[in-house]
Amino acid sequence: xxxxxxxxxxxxxxxxxxxxxxxxxxxxxxxxxxxxxxxxxxxxxxxxxxxxxxxxxxxxxxxxxxxxxxxxxxxxxxxxxxxxxxxxxxxxxxxxxxxxxxxxxxxxxxxxxxxxxxxxxxxxxxxxxxxxxxxxxxxxxxxxxxxxxxxxxxxxxxxxxxxxxxxxxxxxxxxxxxxxxxxxxxxxxxxxxxxxxxxxxxxxxxxxxxxxxxxxxxxxx
Length: 221
What we know:
This protein is α/β, with parallel strands linked by helices. The protein has helices spanning 2-8, 37-48, 88-98, 102-109, 123-135, 140-159, 178-188, 203-220; strands at 19-20, 33-34, 54-58, 63-67, 79-81, 168-171.
């Protein structure tokens, strides 16, 4: 909070309302209230791309997919899945196993012509499988390309439990991994829509800020 305020040239007293969201929301002592992440994502996406009808959120520890109706409401078909096999944590684990920074590994593995099939879903078993594949002589880049494809398949499986309605947007930290994104687009058979250049990892926070503003203005009126 202090770093954000300093960057904006503001003081804490300048903040009229503050809402927290996401996994660490309860640890934000300066927040006035906590708002579910799906509400924040919905509000932000409606602001950034009103044409979006399917939202895929893939973070470090959880992921979800939900639809937005033509009238702008969240459909009851919203789905959440807490298995870390489809999250950014899996990528971090693999980067540690392969002893390369995740950004460098992603860029290099994008050139792989022979991704290695990964059969396991649980990160613990994936880690063991990856080590075995490396010991069997498979290249680390081919192995990571296989991990990215496996993760994309897990995400696509979740999306299959809701209606896939274009435009489709993806948010969350995993959007920074171009290899996973390209694999997912291939599996879904479409290109993910644009969100006006905003950092996809900050979309929920942006939605929380919009909701906080609306609450404050509502209280004033």
